[in-house]
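Repro:
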Amino acid sequence: MALTATTLSAAAAASDSIIYVTSGTGFPGVGVSSKSQRVQVDGEFMYTVDGICQVVSGQIKVRSRGADSTSAVAHDILAPVVTSAAGADWVGIPSMPAYPGVYKAVSVGQNGVIAVPTSNTIVALTKATALASTTLADPAADQEGFLVVLTAATNAAHVVTTVSAYDGTTGAHTTLTFAAYIGASITLAPVKGGWNVVANNAVTVT
């Protein structure tokens, strides 16, 4: 067997016991009885329900949200989903809770608000077309000591609006425009209630 990958076809709340996927490949077919298998969405692990886990095509019944030392969190549409029924296929299962040097994985697949992270986080911009009207608020004044990476996962010129982004030039900037290529990325650090640009790869800050 091997890991199979798909994406969420609809956003999932942290407490949802049914998730919707773009492709059912790798999951048991409709009406097929099976043992529970591991599922990863962003950085969260969960397990399918024993027995018939696929209620209808693309609709997967899960349990144990936040399994394997991860946290149950909300996931946006187009968040990456990985599954396999074979335990030997998995190489990235955490054996202990995440430490400060470990990055959480978050996906943004639609226009809206990017929740301000509270720890090291990689935010994958997964919308097929360019994000617009998407905002990242300032961190709180007492939020410091971690990094946030925004990275394009699609060939689209994503635009993220901020309040106070500082890139080493005069004044605060408000707009992060990504080159229309996978891999365009910017790394931000919360400093004194604003975002300092620590690293930049193909993102225009204005």
